[in-house]
Amino acid sequence: MTENCNQSVETLNKHDMEPTKSEKSQVHDVIKTELQQHMKELTRDVLELVDNRMNDVLAEVVQKVDRIVSNGTRDLVDSEKYSNRTKPTRQDTLPGKQFLQRNSLLTDLYEIKHIRTIYNLIVSTLIILLIHTAAYDIRHTGSPNLGIDTVRAGFAKFSVVLYVWPLMKISALGVYAAFCYWATHHLEFPPNSFSRKAWNYTWLACFILYQTLTIVLPTKAVLDNDLPIACTMIILMEQIRLLMKTYAFVRTVAPRFLSYKPHSETSRPEPPDFSKYLYFMFAPTLIYQDKYPRSDKIRWRVILVNFLEVFTIIFFVALIYERLLYLNYRDFGKQPIDLGMIILNVLSSMLPGILMFVCGFYLLLHSWMNAFAELLRFADKMFYKDWWNSICFSSYYRTWNIVVHDWLYTYIYKDMYEIITPQNKTLAVCAVFAISSIFHEYILIFTGRFFYPIMLFLFGVIGLSMVFIFKSAGNVVLWFSLSAGSGTMVSLYCMEYFARINCPPIYDDFWDLMIPRTLTCAYK
Question: Is a pLDDT exceeding 50 seen at residue 2?
Answer without folding.
Answer: no
